[in-house]
Design goal:
Blueprint: H1 3-8, H2 14-23, H3 27-36, E1 39-40, E2 55-56, E3 62-67, H4 76-89, E4 93-96, H5 103-113, E5 118-120, H6 122-134, H7 142-155, E6 159-162, H8 168-177, H9 186-198, H10 203-206, H11 208-218, E7 221-224, H12 239-257, E8 262-266, H13 272-285, E9 291-294, H14 306-320, E10 324-326, H15 339-360, H16 365-377, H17 381-387, H18 391-401, H19 417-424
Helix pairs in contact: 2-3, 4-5, 4-15, 6-7, 7-11, 8-12, 13-14, 14-15, 16-17
């Protein structure tokens, strides 16, 4: 029985209780939102070491970190190190996007060591295996694709990105419309190639009930992928993107009817003034399903700094109602990220998520900032470092740039406003605590 089926029967599962505990709300509130499809708990029972996480309305905005090998860097231990870095930095979920080496081994290692939900994009592995078996990515059969999906579900994968919305009709519309950057989704590209090669409908769409059957049996949360997401600002919010979103909204209803938890993925490259609009469209067209966004990236011209670009877009998207931010690293558009890139990407996305939570009034968000403000007023450095979103980096900067025993910091020194105001008023720590 899935979390959705249990919630509809009025049952509060251990996973729902754990989410409620972490989110400062009641188990019944969690159950009601799961039953309504506004909240998902990606929790495959075969993922043994999972600490359940909720994603959706009213909860803290979550952050995902992508990992995975490539043909040039197939070492699973390298990805295990990235997993450890992502978890230490506070990622709420990870996705294994491996395309090089032993893909089953990498995924099983990640599942064995990850206490957060693990997601995959099954068509990546299906494409790699099809090329090895048939000499061509597009030569994969529908049965081979679904065999990979079931294999990954049986291993314990908690959520899967599936590009069901790239269809014969949407491909033709894209061809008629034209784009600057065409399709930038790797999964969407594989589906496009398969459709054009076979001149048949996307098997993930045509056999959607088969996909739902697998997800229902293993309680895998579907993440309906945006294969037609814009890859540049010039293509943002175009007809191809919106047509896919309309179709995904229909598939949300079918998934819920089958008892399968479902969320929806979104763009992509979107200018600032269209970010809130994109969130509102998704929430309206997809029945308030949790929204999982990549960034969004709000400019195309900052390679090397795209983690900052994505954090700007992510804060706006989260404020508008997005529930789940996929991190972007400094290596985006340039190369495979290192462990250091993973750390930077997670921290940038967490900053965006927390800024959004402050705007949305998520329980605990304002209290965190208030505690930091009080510690700063008191020049309580240990408390400031403890409260820091990245305590390790904050402590390193404090230690390296200030003499031992200095009560202020070397930015202002004896002219520290906090200390001077307290002395002017004759009170250390002037002001009342809230």
């Amino acid at each position: 029985m899935t979390q959705l089926e249990a919630a509809r029967r009025g049952e509060i599962t251990p996973a729902m209780r754990r989410v409620a505990e972490r989110e400062r709300c009641s188990p019944e509130q969690v159950r009601q939102k799961v039953a309504a499809g506004q909240l998902v708990i990606p929790a495959n029972p075969r993922h043994r070491c999972l600490d359940p996480t909720g994603i959706g309305t009213g909860l803290r905005t979550k952050v995902n970190a992508n990992l995975g090998t490539s043909p040039q860097f197939p070492d699973p231990q390298r990805e295990l190190r990235k997993l450890q870095v992502a978890l230490a930095a506070g990622a709420d979920a990870v996705m294994d996007l491996s395309t090089g080496g032993d893909l089953d081994e990498v995924r099983r290692l990640v599942l064995e060591h990850s206490t957060v939900p693990v997601g995959t994009v099954p068509i990546y592995q299906a494409a790699v295996e099809a090329r090895e078996r048939h000499g061509s990515i597009v030569a994969m059969s529908a049965d081979e694709l679904f065999e990979v999906i079931e294999r990954q579900a049986a291993d314990g994968v908690d959520f899967m990105t599936v590009h069901c919305g790239v269809t014969l009709e949407s491909v033709e519309r894209l061809r008629r419309q034209g784009r600057v950057t065409n399709i930038v989704s790797r999964g969407g590209c594989f589906v496009l190639g398969w459709i054009l090669h076979h001149q048949e409908e996307n098997p993930l769409y045509q056999h959607f009930e088969r996909l739902l059957d697998i997800c229902q049996r293993y309680d895998v949360t579907l993440s309906l992928g945006d294969g037609l997401r814009p890859g540049s600002l010039a293509d943002a919010t175009d007809r191809a993107q919106i047509q896919e979103l309309i179709l995904l909204g229909e598939l949300v209803e079918r998934a819920r009817a089958a008892g399968v938890q479902v969320m929806v993925e979104g763009p992509g490259h979107v200018p600032l003034h269209q970010v809130a609009l994109n969130v509102q469209l998704q929430k309206s067209l997809c029945g308030e399903a949790p929204f999982y966004v990549l960034g969004p990236l709000v400019t195309d011209v900052a390679p090397g700094y795209d983690h900052i670009v994505a954090a700007i877009g992510g804060a706006l998207a989260g404020m508008a109602g997005a529930d789940f931010l996929c991190y972007v690293t400094p290596a985006e558009h340039l190369g495979l990220p290192t462990a250091e890139d993973v750390h930077e990407g997670v921290i940038a996305a967490r900053i965006a998520a927390h800024a959004a939570d402050l705007a949305k009034g998520v329980p605990g968000a304002e209290e965190w900032d208030l505690s930091m403000a009080q510690a700063r007023r008191k020049l309580d450095w240990e408390e400031q470092l403890r409260l820091a979103l990245d305590p390790v980096r904050a402590r390193q900067i404090r230690r390296e740039r200030n003499p031992e025993g200095l009560r202020e910091c070397t930015m202002c020194g004896e002219f520290c406003a906090m200390r001077l105001v307290a002395s002017f008023l004759g009170q250390e720590g002037w002001g009342q605590t809230c």
